[in-house]
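Subject: design request, 205 residues
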């Protein structure tokens, strides 16, 4: 049996297992690029029982899946392809960034906003987010010529820190494609009981 400590630890902190946060779903197309690179099929064949239940969601024709399932699949990929530890976290994030870049480079996605300017593209980002996530809203709370504050409202337990870092890096790709230079993005999650907000503070020139 493989080491699935990250995915299993995520499952164990969910309030109602895979039934947690039923109003929050993710577009299963997020898994397509990962499937193309290998690792999705048979991912949980030798995993502990709660993770083996995720096999039902790994069909190529799935459209929407629970967000908690999507998070667990991402963490399962991290566990199966990389070892434990912070260095392995970074290696996984670099690998996942390449996968997400393929999604953003698809015709009609971020490729269509290249070089139009970060402030112009900002209103499009919540629309793009909603194509892949429902139930965890992304909003723009503040925007100026060289800075912006984006906020994701979500259940406190739904995202792992690896997901938050992935969101930060994916946002950086989108803004860089829109022409943001010397870009810096700080991410912080502020929990208030069962609900939280993840703030993505962006600065560029």
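Subject: RE: design request

Done. Sequence follows.
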């Amino acid at each position: 049996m493989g080491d699935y400590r990250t995915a299993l630890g995520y499952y164990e902190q969910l309030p109602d297992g895979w039934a947690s946060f039923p109003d929050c779903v993710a577009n299963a197309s997020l898994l397509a690029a990962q499937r193309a690179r290998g690792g999705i099929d048979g991912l949980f064949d030798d995993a502990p029982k709660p993770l083996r239940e995720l096999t039902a969601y790994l069909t190529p024709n799935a459209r929407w899946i629970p967000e908690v399932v999507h998070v667990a699949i991402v963490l399962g990929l991290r566990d199966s392809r990389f070892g434990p530890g912070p260095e392995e976290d970074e290696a996984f994030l670099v690998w996942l960034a390449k996968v997400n870049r393929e999604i953003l480079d698809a015709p009609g996605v971020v490729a269509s906003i290249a070089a139009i300017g970060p402030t112009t593209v900002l209103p499009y980002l919540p629309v793009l987010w909603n194509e892949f996530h429902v139930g965890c809203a992304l909003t723009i709370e503040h925007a100026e010529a060289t800075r912006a504050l984006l906020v994701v409202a979500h259940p406190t337990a739904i995202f792992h820190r690896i997901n938050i870092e992935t969101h930060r890096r994916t946002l950086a790709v989108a803004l860089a494609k829109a022409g943001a230079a010397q870009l810096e993005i700080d991410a912080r999650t502020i929990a208030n009981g069962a609900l939280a907000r993840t703030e993505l503070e962006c600065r560029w020139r």
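The chain has eight helices and seven strands.
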